[in-house]
Amino acid sequence: MTNFFKRLLFLIILSPVLSGSTPVLIEDPYVDVRLRGGEIEKLGSWKFPPDIQICEGSPAARAEVAAAVEWWKTRGYTFGNIVEAGHGNGCIVGSAYGSIVISLISQENFNPSNHATTFIRFDRETGEIVRVRIELKENLRERILEHEIGHALGWLHINRRGHLMHPILENGGWNDEGLVQNL
After folding, report:
1. Number of domains into which the chain is organized
2. Distance between terminal CA atoms of the chain?
3. DSSP one-letter code for 124
4. Do residues 155 and 62 make contact, with C-beta atoms less than 8 angstroms apart?
5. Within-domain flag for 178
6. Is 179 contained in some domain?
7. Global pTM?
């Protein structure tokens, strides 16, 4: 199956039925990441703290990314460096190994009802996340970066009003229940 058809399959199968939600698209392997009820679930974890690369043209400014990363750091997560990457280092060809790459959403992934799309590459056997690409729309809204970085850390959607990982922005909030690591 070609990459085009694999991505098309993802978009058809994993596109949320809820308006305004932000899908998480797993590049490989195929897993079901539809809306979860009750308990929050985690797809995987990073073996080492990921660097964050902000691509040229990304709607997220360095200060906004740093604030979102700080939100997660206060909950026990660690990150590498935050760098403005220009067009190299994974911004054109794909995410660099061990990095979270943040860019403007591409035309092939554009869906007007989504605020962002996150692509996660992980090892199904070990659960290790090896790279992530977060694609954002131009009009970045409150909680979008924190939510998408949550996906980059392995967290899936949860059907709990007021929770950061709720897929519908208007039904989400800053509730971090289940996301805090042992400090």
Report:
1. 1
2. 44
3. T
4. no
5. no
6. no
7. 0.78
Tokens 């943040």 sit on residue:
102
Which residue reads 């799309």 in tokens? Answer: 117
Q: Does 11 map to a domain? A: yes
User: Are the C-beta atoms of residues 87 and 56 closer than 8 Å to each other?
Assistant: yes
User: Is 183 contained in some domain?
Assistant: no
Omega within 30 of 0 (cis) for the link into 29 = yes
- Measure the CA–CA gap between 149 and 140, rounded to whole angstroms: 14
Lowest mean pLDDT among 55-59, 100-104, 109-113: 109-113
- In this structure, the strands spanning 99-104 and 128-136 are parallel
Q: Rg for the chain (alpha carbons), in Å?
A: 15
Beta carbons of 121 and 27 less than 8 angstroms apart: yes
Separation between Cα atoms, residue 145 and residue 147, nearest integer Å: 5
Closest CA to 168 of 153, 139, 147: 147
C-alpha span between 40 and 178 (Å, rounded)? 7
- The CA distance from 40 to 180, in Å, is 12
**What's the burial of 122, exposed, middle or buried (CB within 10 Å: 0-12/13-18/19+)?**
buried
Tokens of 72: 């997660």
Domain containing residue 150: 3-171
| 1-45 per-position pLDDT tens digit | 444 434 433 333 333 333 344 445 455 433 444 555 567 888 899
